[in-house]
Every structure is written in C-alpha cells, then in structure tokens.
TrEMBL record:
Gene: glmS
The keyword Repeat appears for this protein: yes
Any single biological process term in GO: protein N-linked glycosylation
Name of the molecule in the record: Glutamine--fructose-6-phosphate aminotransferase [isomerizing]
Species for this entry: Natrinema limicola JCM 13563
Keywords tagged on the record: Aminotransferase, Cytoplasm, Glutamine amidotransferase, Repeat, Transferase
Domain SIS: 41-181, 214-352
Gene Ontology MF terms in the entry: carbohydrate derivative binding; glutamine-fructose-6-phosphate transaminase (isomerizing) activity
Active site: K357
GO cellular component terms given for this protein: cytoplasm
Domain of life, source organism: Archaea
Summary of the function given for this chain in its UniProt record: Catalyzes the first step in hexosamine metabolism, converting fructose-6P into glucosamine-6P using glutamine as a nitrogen source.
Coiled-coil portions: none
Record keyword NADP present: no
Length: 362
C-alpha cells in the first residue's frame, strides 16, 4: 500500500508530479488562453464580484495565502485570507458579491465548516476547494472545485498543498479572463508555467540525496527559521509548520523583512535559516536579510533559481524556472528536509503525536 516507501508522507511527496498532472488534466486550453473548470458561476457573477475571501486552517491556510496573492495579481480582484477560527464575515451592502472560498483538503475541518456557514448565512456566495468527494464542505457551499491530488494518508499535508495552490491558480486565470483583466498572452504564459510544474517538481525530487545531506548536517540544531518574501512568505510558514509537526523541533516562519524587527535576537550558530530566494520572492532582497543572520553565526540555506548570487550561502537547492510558481516548487525541498530531519530522529512521521488528519472539533 505504501508502494515500497517507508512512510506515506515520503510516498505522497513523491506523488506530487502525478498529483499535479491530475489537478491540471483537461482544464487548460492554451489556444484560447483560458481554463475549463467544472464550476458554473451564474451569468455575470464574476464580472460583478467585489471581493474574494479565503478561509482555511493550517497548511490549507498557507495555500490560501499563496492563492490570495495570485488572485490579486492574475485576476486583479480584491482577495483576503483569514484563519477559519478567526473569521467574521463582513460582506458590505451586497454580501452576494463576496465569494467566500473554503480551502480544505479533508472537507471536514470543523473551524472551516463553521466559517463557511457564517458566510453563507450572511448571504455570501460560497465555493469549496477540496480533495474529498462527498465531504461535508461540498454540501455546505454553492459550488465545489476538486483539487484531484488523490488520497492523502500521512497526517502532514504535502501533495494537497501543491494541488490547492495550482487549483486556485487555475481559478485566478478563469476569473481574470471572465472579468477581462487578464490578456490572452499573459494567460498563456501562466498556463505554460503551470504545465511545467510536474516536471519541475520531479527535478527537485531527484535532488533528494542532497537534501538528506543537509538534514544530516543540521538535524541537531536548536531551532529552524524559514524566511521568504511575497509568494515565498507562505512557503516559509508552511516549511516551518511541516518541520515542527513531524520532527517536534522548534521551527518558525517569518516574512524575511521581519527578521531584523525582533527574531534576529534568537539567531545563533544553532539556528539555521532556510530561505526562499527564487523568482516570485524578491530573492535578492532576502539575501541581504540572510547575510545579517549569517553575521550572527547562523547557517544559511537557500532555495534558489537562475541569476541569483549565491556564493555566500552555506547550502543551495536549485529550483527550475517557473516564475511565480517557483516558491511552490521550492516548498518540495522544505517537505523533503522536514521528512529527513524527522526520519533521522526516528519520529512517528505519518502519525505525529497529538495530531489528527482531520480536525472535527472547533
Ligand atoms: C498540516 C496539516 C494541518 C491541516 C489543517 C487543515 O500538515 O495537515 O495543518 O492542513 O488541519 O486541514 P484541511 O485542509 O483538511 O481543512
């Protein structure tokens, strides 16, 4: 059942190229520079849309943060994201013009269900983005968009994060095209980049040995910091969550620019800093923040793409070219790093202590 892998988590990390192909399958129309999603919004709905609110928890919340930026940048629509348990709906004068999207792998997360009920109750239109056919969220929302990642057994979400972001990227294209804010040419470029992702992720997976070496070198650190800007910021948060939940080591993600506003006080030789330095993440600015951490002795580990000066880094992981999706590809290095640190420590990777795959209490 684990197909020769010792853990579901590692199997699911390696399934990402396939999962992403499924996510994209039959949905891209390069000729028209558009997408075909199995969601039919009412005639004129997307044009009259005022705002999109994404609600979610944990890893799905970080996928939502990535997606909110995509929606703003690609579709030019106002998009915000809120942790489901903190969410209060405010839909202005015409709540129906706010689309509230519940992003939930399992479709059963109580906090997310309760948030979407509040929004629906106040008159918003709702959409579920989920991996699970027939799940509760699909019965609570006006429409459902499936991410098609295939079943995820490991408690730590991996392939579903990638498929959530890609599904919401497709939705961004659909909305941008419908509203006329995204040109055919720009849509084609985005869709071509999306199509390269399965191959790009495979290239990262082929570097697993290199990640294992880094995990060996840094496994005994006191604490791990993850930093990034723009699309790299949610990936930094997600990298830290993955590491802490399966290795039980302290890990924290920061917006790279925030390091100097406090966290730098914690930095030492014992706190490696893992950074997203790819396209879509203003890597050259983040390198400056990393240098400050290195000056306090911290090892600097960078996920990098072409053209960035990386001589000063202690460790580099190469990310293939994919424009704003490069941080999503870089995330696969963070998944592998978390996995190997936890595995070297003999942790219960697929069922970490105190955690459950779907959290059905508020
Ligand atoms: C982290 C993790 C959790 C879930 C969160 C939301 O690896 O698995 O943080 O992401 O509980 O779950 P869903 O997406 O099922 O709503």
């Amino acid at each position: 059942e684990k197909g020769g892998y010792e853990h579901y988590m590692r199997k699911e990390i390696h399934e990402q190229p396939t999962a992403l192909r499924q996510t994209l399958s039959g949905r891209i129309d390069l000729d028209r520079g558009d997408v075909d999603l199995d969601v039919d919004f009412p005639q004129g709905y997307l044009e009259s849309l005022e705002e999109i609110q994404l609600v979610s928890c944990g890893t799905s919340y970080y996928a939502s943060q990535y997606a909110a930026r995509l929606l703003e940048e690609i579709a030019d629509v106002r998009a915000s994201v809120e942790i489901a348990s903190e969410y209060e709906f405010d839909g202005g004068r015409d709540p129906w013009r706010t689309l509230v999207i519940a992003v939930t792998q399992s479709g059963e997360t109580a906090d997310t269900l309760s948030a979407i009920r509040r929004a629906a109750g106040a008159g918003a239109r709702t959409l579920a983005v989920t991996n699970t056919l027939g799940s509760s969220v699909t019965r609570e929302t006006n429409d459902t968009l499936f991410i098609r990642a295939g079943p995820e057994i490991g408690v730590a979400a991996t392939k579903t994060f990638a498929s959530q972001v890609v599904t919401l990227a497709l939705l961004s294209v659909a909305i941008g095209r419908e509203r006329g804010t995204l040109s055919t040419a720009n849509a084609r470029t985005l869709l071509e980049n999306l199509r390269t992702l399965p191959g790009a992720v495979q290239q990262v997976l082929d570097e697993e040995e290199h990640v294992l070496e880094a995990a060996r070198e840094y496994q005994d650190s006191e604490s791990f910091f993850f930093v990034g800007r723009r699309y790299g910021y949610p990936v930094a948060l997600e990298g830290a969550l993955k590491l802490k939940e399966i290795s039980y080591d302290h890990a924290e993600g920061f917006a790279a620019g925030e390091l100097k506003h406090g966290p730098l006080a914690l930095v030492s030789e014992q706190t490696p800093v893992l950074a997203v330095l790819t396209a879509g993440s203003d890597g050259s600015e983040t390198v400056n923040n990393l240098t400050e951490a290195q000056a306090r002795g911290a090892p600097a580990i960078g996920t990098v793409s072409d053209g960035l000066e990386t001589k000063s880094l202690d460790w580099t992981f190469e990310v293939p070219e994919a424009d704003v999706f490069e941080p999503l590809v870089a995330n696969v290095y963070f998944q592998l790093f978390a996995y190997h640190v936890a595995n070297l420590k003999g942790r219960s990777i697929d069922k970490p202590r105190n955690l459950a795959k779907s959290v059905t209490v508020e």
